[in-house]
């Protein structure tokens, strides 16, 4: 078993996104075919990704969930083909998908439901020794952008993550293997996402490495003036990543690996 998550993923580390889906908001299904997903994963590793996040179920706003057999059919061939040659994270809330992925070499389970989706997932993570990302989401992908409401978004996200961290540790997953994610775009308005970004240090203060997914998120397109944007450009993604880095983020889930590695290398070179 490898060491604490902060040793495996020193700040800043980049996680490349490989959506093996026909309908993700951000990449329009470019990695739906196994061969394309495998080629993307290899390229991202060459470009400096510390890990690639392979997922078979879209979590974009409005997305419907995918049956277990379909999710397995999408991700298992990709993991088999990669054969452990590229470090892999599995983006799933399903215990059986996580189990198969870990057997095929996945090191980290990226669960956007923070162990609320499948009661068997915590045990799979605990017994395997995999790393775990616990993410905040208000609602569920199908409906989460219908009037998300908070009194104090940063405080509520922090308190949710603190509670889910305690739950995970209580289920036998060592705290040193867990990172936390505020879930940008998951049940949050543009204003709430930017407030959360401004106060990301409050999430980092929970004492666990913070993973952020800001890349190509629709709030970035909307802040640039398109009220109907469903995605955001690379330039805005890089700015958001650097802002997150300055507030303590450690792991960056991104589509454009080379550009983020370069931007974050520059940000990290600034003495603080
Ligand atoms: C799967 N997925 C899509 N967006 C994400 C984000 O912001 N964080 C994490 N952990 N996973 C995400």
In short:
It contains 11 helices and 8 strands. It has an 8-stranded parallel beta sheet with strand order 6-5-4-3-2-1-8-7.
Features:
alpha/beta, 272 residues, 42% helix, single chain, binds 9-methylguanine, 8-stranded parallel beta sheet, 13% strand, 11 helices
Computed over alpha carbons, the radius of gyration is 17 Å
Largest sheet: 8 strands, parallel
In terms of DSSP E residues, the strand content is 5-15%
How far the N terminus sits from the C terminus, by CA atoms, comes to 33 Å
**Number of DSSP-assigned strands:** 8
The coarse overall form would be: globular
* Low-confidence runs of at least 5 consecutive residues: none
Structural class: alpha/beta
Oligomerization status of the protein chains: single chain
Query: What is the helical fraction, as a range of percent?
Result: 40-55%
Order of helices and strands: HEHEHEHEHEHEHHEHHEH
Average residue-wise pLDDT = 95
Count of alpha/pi helices? 11
Strand order of the largest sheet: 6-5-4-3-2-1-8-7
Ligands in the structure? 9-methylguanine
Structural commentary:
This protein is α/β, with parallel strands linked by helices. The chain is built from 11 helices and 8 strands. Strands 6-5-4-3-2-1-8-7 form an 8-stranded parallel beta sheet. It is globular. It starts with a helix and ends with a helix. The model has no long low-confidence stretch (mean pLDDT 95). 9-methylguanine (9MG) is lined by residues 55, 59, 91, 110, 112, 133, 135, 181, 183-184, 211, 213, 253. 9-methylguanine binds next to strand 5.
């Amino acid at each position: 078993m490898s060491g604490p998550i902060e040793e495996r993923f020193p700040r800043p580390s980049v996680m490349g996104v490989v959506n093996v889906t026909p309908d993700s908001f951000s990449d329009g299904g470019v990695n739906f075919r196994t061969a394309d997903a495998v080629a993307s994963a290899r390229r991202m590793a060459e470009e400096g990704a510390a890990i690639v996040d392979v997922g078979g179920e879209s979590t974009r706003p409005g997305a419907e969930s995918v049956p277990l057999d379909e999710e397995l059919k999408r991700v298992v061939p990709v993991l088999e083909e990669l054969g452990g040659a590229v470090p892999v994270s599995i983006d799933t809330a399903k215990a059986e998908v996580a189990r198969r992925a870990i057997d095929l070499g996945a090191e980290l389970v990226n669960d956007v439901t923070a162990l609320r989706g499948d009661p068997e997932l915590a045990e799979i993570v605990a017994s395997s020794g995999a790393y775990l990302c616990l993410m905040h989401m208000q609602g569920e992908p199908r409906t989460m952008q219908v009037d998300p409401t908070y009194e104090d978004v940063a405080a509520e996200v922090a308190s949710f993550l603190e509670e889910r961290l305690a739950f995970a540790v209580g289920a036998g997953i060592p705290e040193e293997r867990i990172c936390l994610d505020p879930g940008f775009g998951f049940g949050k308005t543009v204003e709430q996402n930017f407030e959360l970004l401004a106060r990301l240090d409050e999430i980092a203060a929970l004492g666990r490495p913070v993973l952020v997914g800001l890349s190509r998120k629709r709030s970035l397109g909307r802040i640039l003036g398109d009220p109907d944007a469903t995605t955001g450009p690379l330039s805005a993604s890089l700015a958001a990543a650097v802002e997150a880095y300055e507030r303590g983020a450690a792991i960056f889930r991104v589509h454009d690996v080379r550009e983020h590695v370069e931007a974050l290398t520059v940000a990290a070179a600034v003495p603080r």
